[in-house]
Amino acid sequence: MKIYTRTGDDGSTGLFGGERVSKDHPRVQAYGTVDEANAVLGTARSWLDDADLDTELAWIQSALFDLGADLATPPTARQRSQLVPIEHLDVVQLETAIDRLEETLEPLQNFILPGGSPAAACLHQARTVVRRAEREVKALAVDQFNPVVAVFLNRLSDFLFVAARSANARAGLEEVRWQPRRSSTGD
To answer: How would residue 76 be classed by pLDDT, with cut points 50, 70 and 90?
Structure first.
């Protein structure tokens, strides 16, 4: 099978089920952003030197593939029966991981700036991409996707924030606290 099909040369793409839509269709934008988040997580994993966190991220990457397939499949497509949908148990798994990581961290007292170790910086970037995916999913009509997808994305961004903090802590790096800038007018 060749990687190129030439079917998208006209600016359209095929959804799972055969329907063709414009590449700027909101559904395509949503699953494209999920794919982008997945790619950033792959970069984060390449920098990570923590087997436990890597295992969590590997599970999340697989879940994001399932989530992307869900978004790429119209609700009326018969292929929906072939999907592994994101379920409430997936959200609970993220919450459990968040709680486990937070037990090892100092309580957050201030806003922090994204950054730190390369792995943490990538996790922060993935968090912002997931937030964009969440907004794009929200822009779809509610009957156009599995409603647990939005909940999963919301919880995933929380997980990625805590994972970034954990990656920095495990690397021995202190978080940089946000300091409000002073007005240049002296006010």
So the answer is: confident
Query: Which two tokens mark 110?
Result: 């201030």
Query: Which of 4-8, 24-28, 173-177 has the least mean pLDDT?
Result: 4-8
- Rg of the chain taking only CA atoms, in angstroms: 19
Buried b (16+ CB within 10 A) or exposed e, 31-70: bbbbbbbbebbebbbeebebeebeebbeebbebbebbbbb
The strand pairing partners of 13, in sequence order, are 21
Direct distance between the N- and C-terminal alpha carbons of the chain, in angstroms, rounded to an integer: 65
Place 176 in a pLDDT band, splitting at 50, 70 and 90. confident
Residue 127 tokens read as 């968090």
* 3-state SS class at 158: helix
Among residues 167, 136, 155, the alpha carbon closest in space to that of 60 is found at 155
Strands (E), the chain: 12-14, 20-22
